[in-house]
């Protein structure tokens, strides 16, 4: 959360264009204003406009200290409200992750690291900086969590404890994959203030289509990862999954969000991109693609489906 996204650190790129020519784009200096920032046009284009062969990135100093906290809730809504309240309070954690009860149980069955399986939700929070700064930040984080209904807050005090918590977060995907043979992972993202409402809508969608859905994700930047656990060999169920995914996309856009905050559009979301860009925005994207890649050589079918 605190450090933003990769795009924020891209200063310049060396790119091979579809015709084989090589070009350097971007602003390697903060004050550089020599024409449009073509580098930002290529970031997020998913290889449809060129092939990146070099990247110039801005680096930041490694923080001198970190503190990892685990906040436990009896309500997923309370955990979601905590996220928006915490950001609104001015405290920006390094990391702010959310896991619902089904996710917690799946990970604990998979790893057995001592997660609170009776909790309806947990927040995994990390703050960093100087030792003095993180003490103040951690105190404020705990205050907000308690105000929003946290029943318990645990501070990881040893490297082993910290490692257990982050191993648990990294294990979510394989853990959920053991529950059902097919896992449909989405990453529709909403403004932080809309996380509580998005969580409510996700639960309603799962109920509407009678599907098993686990909810987790990078809540600090509004990037939720609803995963629908299903069986690709059950054709009737997969039809319900497709309908649920469409409803999920609509919900995110209605709340001022985006189809993807991390995974990208790729092939699967390309048919829905126009919902977000609008007809005019989509047409501009198609025109740009057709000019830069006249023969449609690079990742045909992705994004603008030309």
Could you outline the blueprint of secondary structure elements for this entry?
Elements: E1 10-16, E2 22-26, H1 38-42, E3 51-57, E4 65-73, H2 76-88, E5 95-100, H3 101-111, E6 121-129, H4 131-147, E7 150-155, H5 159-170, H6 172-177, E8 182-185, H7 195-208, E9 212-218, E10 223-230, H8 235-254, H9 273-292
Antiparallel strand pairs: 1-2, 1-3, 4-6, 4-7, 5-6, 5-9, 8-10, 9-10
Helix pairs in contact: 2-4, 2-7, 7-8
Pfam families: FAD-oxidase_C (PF02913)
Organism: Sporomusa malonica
GO molecular function: FAD binding; oxidoreductase activity
3D structure, described in words:
With 306 residues, this protein is of the alpha+beta class. It folds into three domains: 6-60 and 266-292, Uridine Diphospho-n-acetylenolpyruvylglucosamine Reductase, domain 3; 65-174, Alpha-Beta Plaits; 176-254, Alpha-Beta Plaits. It is 39% helix and 22% strand. It has helices at residues 38-42, 76-88, 101-111, 131-147, 159-170, 172-177, 195-208, 235-254, 273-292, and strands spanning 10-16, 22-26, 51-57, 65-73, 95-100, 121-129, 150-155, 182-185, 212-218, 223-230. A seven-stranded antiparallel beta sheet has the order 7-4-6-5-9-10-8, sandwiched between helices. A hairpin with a 5-residue loop joins strand 1 and strand 2. The chain is globular. The mean pLDDT is 94. Residues 1-62 form the FAD-binding PCMH-type domain. Keywords: FAD, Flavoprotein, Oxidoreductase.
Query: What sequence of helices (H) and strands (E) makes up the elements?
Result: EEHEEHEHEHEHHEHEEHH
How many structural domains in the coordinates? 3
Tell the overall outline: globular
Strand content: 15-25%
The rounded distance between the terminal residues' Cα atoms is 35 Å
Unreliable parts: none
Q: What is the level 1 CATH name of the largest domain?
A: Alpha Beta
Count the DSSP helices: 9
**Number of strand segments:** 10
Structural class computed from helices and strand pairing: alpha+beta
- The second-level CATH architecture of the largest domain is 2-Layer Sandwich
Mean pLDDT: 94
Strands of the widest sheet, in order across it, are: 7-4-6-5-9-10-8
* Largest β sheet strand count, sense and barrel closure: 7 strands, antiparallel
> What is the CATH topology classification name of the largest domain?
Alpha-Beta Plaits
Q: Indicate the radius of gyration in whole angstroms.
A: 21 Å
Helix percent band: 25-40%
């Amino acid at each position: 959360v605190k450090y933003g996204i990769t795009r924020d650190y891209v200063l310049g790129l060396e790119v091979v264009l579809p015709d084989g020519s090589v070009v350097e784009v971007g602003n390697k200096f903060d004050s550089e204003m020599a024409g449009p920032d073509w580098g930002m046009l290529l970031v997020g284009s998913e290889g449809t406009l060129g092939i990146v062969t070099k990247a110039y990135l801005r680096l930041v100093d490694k923080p001198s200290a970190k503190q990892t906290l685990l906040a436990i809730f009896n309500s997923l809504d309370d955990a979601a409200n905590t996220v928006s309240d915490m950001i609104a309070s001015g405290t920006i954690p390094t990391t702010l992750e959310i896991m619902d009860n089904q996710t917690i149980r799946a990970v604990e069955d998979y790893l057995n690291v001592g997660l609170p399986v009776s909790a309806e939700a947990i927040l995994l929070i990390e703050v960093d900086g100087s030792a003095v700064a993180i003490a103040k930040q951690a105190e404020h984080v705990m205050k907000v969590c308690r105000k929003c209904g946290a029943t318990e807050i645990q501070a990881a005090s040893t490297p082993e404890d910290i490692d257990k918590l982050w191993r648990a977060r990294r294990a979510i995907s394989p853990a959920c994959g053991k529950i059902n043979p097919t896992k449909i992972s989405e990453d529709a993202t909403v403004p932080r203030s809309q996380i509580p409402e998005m969580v409510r809508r996700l639960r309603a969608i799962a109920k509407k289509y009678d599907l098993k859905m686990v909810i987790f994700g990078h809540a600090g930047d509004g990037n939720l990862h609803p995963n629908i656990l299903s069986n690709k060999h059950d054709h009737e169920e997969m039809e319900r999954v497709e309908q649920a995914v469409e409803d999920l996309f609509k919900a995110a856009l209605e709340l001022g969000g985006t189809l993807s905050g991390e995974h990208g559009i790729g092939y699967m979301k390309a048919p829905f991109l126009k919902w977000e860009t609008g007809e005019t925005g989509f047409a501009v994207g198609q025109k740009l693609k057709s000019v830069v890649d006249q023969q449609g050589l690079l990742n045909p079918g992705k994004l603008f489906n030309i």
